[in-house]
Specification:
The complex is a heterodimer of chains A (249) and B (274).
Chain A lengths: L2 E14 L2 E14 L3 E5 L6 H9 L6 E6 L5 E4 L11 H5 L1 H5 L5 H13 L15 H13 L5 E5 L7 H17 L3 E6 L2 H7 L2 E5 L6 E6 L9 H4 L5 H15 L1
Parallel strand pairs in A: 3-7, 3-8, 5-6, 6-7
Antiparallel strand pairs in A: 1-2, 1-4, 8-9
Chain B lengths: L14 H37 L5 H4 L2 H13 L2 H33 L1 H16 L6 H8 L3 H25 L3 H9 L4 H38 L5 H10 L3 H30 L3
Helix pairs in contact in B: 3-11, 4-5, 4-7, 4-9, 4-10, 5-7, 6-7, 7-9, 8-9, 9-10, 9-11, 10-11
Classes of the chains: A alpha/beta (249), B mainly alpha (274).
């Protein structure tokens, strides 16, 4: 199988005047094309730092990160970060505008995404007119518009209320499967991690190292994030990961 | 005042809604009525006071004298020159303040080190009473409109720089990260994020500035002018032509109101998108 991402023994520390804080220590990970990886860990353990390192915004102190393909990475944040002065359509094409790729073909793709994910009637609305779930979908379309090979999801659902959260999680999980995207999800919600992930990476306290990587095999057909929660193995995985986390906390 | 929405289909309006709307309409009428009444009473008391010799019209002038002076000065065209001079000096310094303010705030935002270096100077210059500078400026720049413009700019520009820079610096770092993740450069961050999201602050700063520029221009004209409403006021008071003085002040009230109203219009137009 082709590897989209190869992380080899990376470490990273933050520097402030009062001292040095190691955030990531000796992490190695390989991710295959089309795979969905969930990363869980205690809060403040350096999960987001790991994503920033993969995204290339910051560089590891040691070790290497190799990305196969066009090095085109999409990033989804906890907040949707939609710009209020742009319409939904304007927000969705922001990346294309920035990269001067707003060709008729690419804009047609944005339009098809908006239609496919139920936002075509809100194209000319401003973000404040959308519900929380719709806003997060608009943010996803903004990311997908650039056709990334690898998607980094940094707790993208944690700002939503519980019901919306389950819906949007199901929505986005299904969209990403359908678009055959490789994705890494960082979350502190174990159920979310299991319901979306093909593998769950469990991290230790700061500086984070990998405690365990648990492949998720659920005995249900046409798995979606929501239906995964009904799988008989779900609670077993939950207990295993819960134990891993508490043992290392 | 906010527009009251009466577009809801009128035939199906509930009793409660109807009485609420009636109450709002009543409130608006009361406000308008007292606004106009206050103005009329003020003018009437002044005029009647003068006519009954309670108020000395040599010192206090009177509404009718102000109007007569205004008409006289309209006849020989002087007033248009004086108003136009003050107005154009105000507009010019206003545009300069906005331009210099935005450019300087961008430079501060671009470099953390530069902004740290400049911080104490900006704070001191902003708190310094700029009217203290005016006499110095006359000596340096001469008895001409340059002094007036520089005085006006110096009054408004430091506050503008500080306000705009603060707003630029408060932009959510995650939004900057977003632009970077979408492949944007620092210029993209500036033009696609910082400037558009700061537009409301730029407008509200402009609203304050237009008034400050007018203040600066009048201070400048007091000291270094042969034309303009500020000159008319200082000359009138020195020669005891109080009609001139009070007419100029009345005109300044009108100009200040119009300028503020103009920016308000601009704000409303932009507000639709924020």
């Amino acid at each position: 199988m082709e590897h989209v991402l190869k992380i080899d023994n990376i470490s990273y520390s933050y520097h402030t005047i009062t001292g040095e804080t190691p955030a990531v220590k000796n992490i190695s990970l390989k991710i295959e094309k089309g795979e969905f990886i969930s990363i869980v860990g205690p809060s403040g353990c350096g999960k987001s730092t790991l994503l920033s390192l993969i995204s290339g915004l910051i560089h590891p102190d040691s070790g290497t990160i190799e990305i196969n393909g066009s090095n085109n990475i999409g990033y989804m944040f906890q907040k949707d970060n939609l710009f209020e002065w742009r319409t939904v359509y304007g927000n969705a094409r922001l990346g294309l505008d920035i990269q001067h790729k707003a060709t008729p073909k690419n804009l047609e793709y944005v339009n098809s995404l908006l239609t496919a994910y139920g936002l075509d009637n809100f194209k000319n609305s401003h973000p404040s007119q959308l519900s929380g779930g719709m806003r997060q979908r608009a943010a996803l379309i903004r990311t997908l518009a650039l056709e990334p090979d690898l998607l980094l999801l940094d707790e993208p659902f944690s700002a939503l209320d519980y019901q919306t959260r389950l819906e949007v999680c199901d929505d986005i999980g299904t969209i990403l499967k359908k678009e055959e995207k490789t994705a890494i999800l960082v979350t502190h919600d174990l159920s979310e991690a299991i319901s979306m992930g093909d593998r769950v990476v469990v991290l230790s306290r700061r500086p984070c190292t990998i405690c365990d990587i648990i492949p998720i095999n659920l005995s249900i057909e046409n798995r979606t994030p929501l239906s995964s929660r009904n799988a008989p193995e779900f609670k077993d995985y939950f207990n295993i990961i819960w134990k891993e986390l508490t043992d290392n906390a | 005042m906010p527009e009251i929405n009466t577009n809801i289909s009128k035939d199906r309006i509930s009793k409660g809604q109807a009485s609420f709307l009636r109450h709002q309409k009543f409130k608006r009428r009361i406000i308008t009525f007292f606004r106009v009444a206050l103005f009329i009473i003020f003018i009437a008391v002044w005029e009647i006071g003068v006519r009954l010799d309670v108020i000395n019209d040599f010192i206090f002038s009177s509404p009718s004298r102000i109007v007569r002076t205004f008409i006289d000065m309209c006849m020989n065209g002087d007033i248009f020159i004086h108003s136009a001079v003050t107005l154009s000096e105000t507009m010019l310094s206003f545009l300069l303040v906005l331009f210099v303010g935005i450019v300087f705030a961008i430079l501060l935002w671009m470099s953390d080190i530069f902004s740290k270096i400049m911080e104490p100077y900006l704070v001191i210059l902003n708190s310094l009473p700029k009217s203290a500078l005016a006499p110095v400026l006359i000596v340096w720049l001469g008895n001409n409109p340059k002094t007036i413009i520089v005085t006006a700019v110096s009054i408004a520009v430091f506050g503008t720089i500080i306000n705009l820079y603060t707003s630029f610096a408060e932009i959510d770092p995650e939004k900057i990260k977003l632009i970077r993740m979408l492949g944007g450069s620092r210029l993209d961050v500036l033009f696609r994020l910082i400037l558009p999201s700061s537009l409301p602050i730029i407008i509200s700063t402009a609203k304050v500035n237009i008034g400050l520029c007018l203040v600066g221009v009048i201070i400048g004209e007091f000291l270094a002018a042969r034309r303009g409403l500020g000159f008319l006021i200082i000359y009138g008071s020195q020669t005891f032509k109080m009609n001139w003085v009070l007419m100029s002040i009345t005109l300044l009230c009108i100009i200040a109101g119009l300028l503020y109203w103009g920016i308000g219009l601009l704000e409303k137009k932009l507000h639709a998108n924020y």
